[in-house]
Amino acid sequence: MSQGESASEESSSFDDEDFSDMPGLEQVDVQAQRQEMAAELAIDFRDLPMGTLEDGAEPDYAHAAELKSRALEEAREGHLRKAVLLASDAVQAHPGSGLMLVCRARILIDLGEISAAKRDLKLAVKRSPNSASAYHCLGDACRLLCDSEGAVKAYRTGLDLEYRAESARHLTVMEKDVKEQARRDRAVREKVKVDIKPGKPSSAIPGVHPAAQGFKPPAGMANPFEVLADEAANLSPQMAERLMGDNKVASLFNDPDFAAKLAEASNGPEGAAKFANDPEFLKNIAAFMGVMGQKK
């Protein structure tokens, strides 16, 4: 055997032993696609990254802009979950930018994740208070969640910054909804006039204790917020339909802040006392109870 033939055989043997079990390019592509799909399916819309920088780190403006552009391109092609991941990377790359959150929020709205979009936008208007887009988009999210009051506030601010005909049309409708809700609230208050006395449960609204009006329930007496939370978690189909038919109450079901407050208020006397004098929380509770107490 010649020296050339021996070298050829050694080379061939080396190729067979060391590369025969390596995946081809097509197999690598399939694996990458599977990993990408798994990441998209694993998205937790309740816990999306809101943008934090490690100590000493600097925002990467150029990279954030590139990621935002790629996210919008994926969204235009209908790859919304992939777009959310790219937009989240953009938020992380430039945490101080409200516009990166607006970008992700728009994609979330298209995906139907409105509550997640609203969380993004509430932070976006804080980070970029002069961004008309942030307020207009927040108005859209509030409107889709039946939060008429929130929509009115957001649209008004957005229109002050930049006029948009579509937002102006939505504002007109939302203002009518707010007026109608206020009229209904007044009617409920007139219909249910309660003589509240400390230490005695109200007879006019079953299950409602004076603690809901600023009093602390005596030891051994049911926490009214706990009662309400339990009822809300165990609604009959008929009651659920009635509640979702009310714009204000329907928005509460999609409001993570209200849910968190109700959970804390229903967790013992200390929690009840903490929120017993929170006017906004009590206003929401009153709206909830008003609809639940309506007769068919």
TrEMBL record:
Residues 1-31 are annotated as: Disordered. Keywords: Repeat, TPR repeat. GO terms for molecular function: Hsp70 protein binding. Pfam families: STI1-HOP_DP. Residues 1-11 have a biased composition (Low complexity). Gene3D superfamilies: 1.10.260.100, Tetratricopeptide repeat domain (1.25.40.10). InterPro entries: STI1/HOP_DP, TPR-like_helical_dom_sf, TPR_rpt. Residues 237-290 form the STI1/HOP DP domain. PANTHER family: HSC70-INTERACTING PROTEIN (PTHR45883:SF2). This is STI1/HOP DP domain-containing protein. It comes from Kipferlia bialata.
